[in-house]
Amino acid sequence: MSVNISAVRAPRAVKGPAAGLLLGVLVVAAALALSLAFGGRPTSFGELLHAIATPDGSVADIAIRELRWPRTLNALAVGACVGVAGCLAQGHTRNPIADPGLLGIYPGAALAIVAGSLLPGAAGTGTYAQAGFAFLGAVIACALVVTVGSASRHGATPLTLVLAGAAVSALAGGIVSLIVLSSDAALDTLRFWQLGSVAVRGGLLPQLLPFIVLGLVLAVANIGPLNALALGEDTARSLGVSVGRARIVGLAALAVLAAASVTLAGPLAFAGLLVPHAVRGLVGADYRWQIPGCALFGAALMLLADTAGRVIARPGELPVGVVLAVVGAPFFIYLARRRRLVSL
Amino acid sequence: MPGLLAPGSRVVRVRTASLVFLPRIAWLALAAVLLLLAAIAGHLMLAGHPVGLSQVAAVFLNDPAVPRAVRLTVLEFRLPRTIAGVVAGACLAVAGALTQTVARNPLATPEVLGVTAGASTGAVAVLVLAGAGHGGASGLAAAVGMPLAAALGALGTGAAVFMLTYRRSQQSFDSMRLVLVGLGASGLATSITTWLLTMGDVSNASQALTWMMGSLNGKDWGTVMPALLASLPLLLVAGACGRWLLLSAFDDDTARSLGLPLGRSRPLLLVLAVLLAAVGTVLAGPVAFVALLCPLAARFAARTVVPPLGLTALFGAAFVVLSDLVAGFLLPHSLPVGVFTTVLGAPVLIALVFRSQRRTS
Amino acid sequence: MTNTYGATTAAGTAHLSAHGLTLGFDGREVVPNIDVAFARGTVTSIIGPNGCGKSTLLRGLGRLLRPQKGHVLLEGSDVAAMQARAVAQRMSILPQTPHAPSGLTVGELVARGRHPRQRWYQQFSGSDESAIAAALEATDIAGLAATPLEDLSGGQRQRAWISMILAQETELMLLDEPTTYLDLAHQVDVLELVRGLNRDTGRTVVMVLHDISLAARYSDVIIAMRDGKIVAEGPPSDVVTAELLWDVFGLRAEVIREPVEGRPHVVPLGAGRAAVAQAAGLGGARA
């Protein structure tokens, strides 16, 4: 029994939420260094310093500065986006199994990418074209879900959004299957895209940065209302929160962050499901700590998973989505089993 | 006194015995049976080269005048596929009714138990790793390996989710925990499947994808018979547990206080759901929306609180056979049945959203 | 049946008894090692501050919670070894926050109370029907039988759940805060009903109540709990005293005799509770 107790309380060994965040910062810093240091070929610490401080175009310098640096930044951004988006999705639906795919974003992006691959002359399969399609598809799917979900008399409630999301996702998924069953080219595009990887589209980060910043700002602005909404809509109203506006802000942040992440790295919904659960165990239910915590630990998780994928399968690499699932799923199951479920 | 039983119920009492009977369900069941028979007849007549209804009837009456080719077509090619649709539809729908009721969540289909994702991983692994080669999986790998691997994947994942959820101290399953653990297992299985898809060549991936969409293509008696034999006892046991289902829809404390042996009933109902979902999935792949929609439709049509299992099974069978008929043979392009149920099911789900919104507001 | 558990000779005649009962969740002990017995034909109320373990004890007695240690005996036999259905025919429980599937009508809910007495070939007998009708009458909601549960007010819903327990027609009833959501008149109605059932049919009732004065008014025995332990047990006039209220609740109050039956009645002495409690080392402990 005593073993059981220690297992239950282990996440609370950290003293207070601030220490949890500090831990997050340290883990991110360590993960950052690891991500730069490890790759298809191992790099010594000296080479790493050399590349940062006095680059002179050596092979190691180029590998670190041109290949690993953008990829690392990409993983950092994607992780933060997915983590915060997951937190928003679970917070607004008060449903612990919600993930950033709540608003139909992943099947929407998949549909756009598959449709794009049918364009003549492989015009739609380039990196930039794919990203454009993914972003567009995600945003359109999201808009559709919100429109359908708010068509009832009471406007968008968490329940209608979840169901509308499920329906739109299914519809988009069905059409994707329809297309890829009739076109091998489309299937080839889809099967590699849907694994999720932070390796290839890192160069797009500057273009998407405004969206990511916007999403994070909206998410931070949503913290107060989220804390109130966690007590129920009626209580939130009595605390002076405009529920409708809080939902719109939160959903907008969720949509932008999830769309940006799917554009940069493909569908990595599982991380968005996992990170908020782990963070809640570490910093508690207060969204003032949860949102930054999800950003930090999302980033750390993504960096570590990506680095692990590069190290495990040398000289090739395992896509980050696979590493996330293989490591994340058992951890998630452990969380679900061991901890008293934090209700939302 | 009105209101004590579901609206429209009739009570029949003979001596100490008393039965509650809902005429509406009987009528709905009759309608579903007629629709199912029509769909089966349509399937036997129209699955490919048309055969007249009288010819089909003659085949079943063992009329010697029927040409051998027609007999072969109907009995060896079309009938197994039809039966596969009936069995898969009934199994998936009943599995959905059980999970939805036990988890007290209309979205909790057998998919959240990890069963379908596990089956997909098993089937895709055989397709990709056994080197089915160009021209698609052939021979032993496809005929025996895929169903076997799918069954192993389904049951293995289901068993793992079970063992990870069960808490000995409480001797029961917490519904929310079950859903979370199931999601974790599904996520893992799905990701492995996705990864496997990138490993083989694209024609294997295409074949795997067809399987993953749910397809009744090329079912023969060798696959259908074992599934049929496995499904019958499972469906019967599920039917016998129907009265437990009424109490399972309450919270745990109330269900227990009314004498439901939760420690036994919930594992049994979930094991049944896993087995039924496994049979359905191994036979036809994870046909989308059958497990989600058929129980809901049966519940709404019968206006009962929990889905009537018999009606749910009939709805499931009719839905799958009819969808397969339309998707496979009546459309200009032949499609796997799952694509059709998805495209058909999504709008129905949206309609249900608004219906339920109106009802509670 | 001979009793295999020691120190239960007195409890041999008890309707329901607990022996060395230890209850808790996830390795945390909420109620450690309790011995308690409820005599047949009595009404017992369990009182105590929030979080003292009284609902946990009730759930343990009603086999809604598995004991970590110890046993619960119903009419002398171990509940853990009995069939769920057999227990449900003898003991009914009103949980604190029951939840019914959506769309269920009041009549259907109350009819579910007959489940322990039904079989697949006895789905709705004449005695089922009359028991349900009587239960609906007793709680004054017969007119609402065809109404969906969601459409009721909190008080009506609570009465529907009580009605379901009544339809179960058990000799022993465990009620966890049966008067929540009810206005004073309906609180009194429910307690009068419970008392009447006890008086007319000799039923045994164990309930958790928050209102000490009402508990004193309608019970034969009061059990006071604090921190998972029973600190006092006996007739209301012995248990409900100013000292006990101070010890158990940290509440300054005067206890007077009410004029009808001369039972104890609590008059709280307003201000100062927090300050005084803090001085006594109790303040904020159960925030």
Largest interface, with counts of residues having CB < 8 Å to the other chain, equals: A-B, 50 and 48 residues
Report the total helices of chain A: 15
Q: What oligomeric state do the depicted chains represent?
A: heterotrimer
Q: Please work out how many helical segments of chain C DSSP would assign.
A: 10
Q: Strand-residue fraction of chain C? A: 25-35%
C-alpha Rg of chain C (nearest Å): 20 Å
Helix % of chain A is over 70%
**Average pLDDT level of chain A:** 82
**Which structural class fits the helix and strand makeup of chain A?**
mainly alpha
Order of neighbouring strands in the sheet with most strands of chain C: 6-7-8-3-9-10
Total beta strands of chain C = 12
Helix/strand class of chain C: alpha/beta
Question: What percent of residues of chain C adopt helix (DSSP H or I)?
Answer: 25-40%
Roughly how many Å apart are the termini of chain C? 46 Å
Shape of chain C: globular
Count of DSSP strands of chain A: 0
> Describe the biggest sheet of chain A?
none
Shape field of chain A: globular
SSE series of chain C: EEEHEEHEHHHEHEHEEHHEEH
Distance between the termini of chain A: 27 Å
Overall pLDDT score of chain C: 85
Tell me what you see in this structure:
- The complex is a heterotrimer of chains A (344), B (361) and C (287).
- Chain A has helices at residues 2-9, 16-37, 45-53, 59-93, 105-116, 127-149, 158-182, 184-193, 205-221, 223-229, 233-238, 243-265, 269-283, 287-312, 320-338.
- In chain A, 53% of the residues are buried.
- Chain A has 344 residues and is mostly helical.
- In chain B, strands 1-2 form a two-stranded antiparallel ribbon.
- With 361 residues, chain B is mainly α.
- Chain B is built from 14 helices and two strands.
- In chain B, helix 5 packs antiparallel against helix 6.
- With 287 residues, chain C is α/β, with parallel strands linked by helices.
- Chain C has helices at 54-61, 84-90, 106-112, 126-138, 154-167, 184-201, 212-218, 236-239, 242-249, 273-279; strands spanning 14-25, 28-39, 43-47, 69-74, 77-78, 91-94, 172-176, 204-208, 221-226, 229-234, 253-257, 264-268.
- The longest helix of chain C is centred in the C-terminal third of the chain and has 18 residues, at 184-201.
- Chain C has a six-stranded mixed β-sheet, with helices on both faces. A four-stranded antiparallel β-sheet of chain C has the order 2-1-4-5, with helices on one face. In chain C, strands 11-12 form a two-stranded antiparallel ribbon.
- In chain C, strand 7, helix 6 (184-201) and strand 8 form a beta-alpha-beta unit.
- Mean pLDDT of chain C is 85; it is low at 1-12 and 282-287.
- The radius of gyration of chain C is 20 Å and the shape is globular.
- In chain C, helix 3 (106-112) packs parallel to helix 5 (154-167) and helix 4 (126-138) runs antiparallel to helix 5.
- Helix content of chain C is 32%, strand content 25%.
- Chain C starts with 13 loop residues before the first strand and ends in an 8-residue tail after the last helix.
- The interface between A and C is small, with 6 and 3 residues.
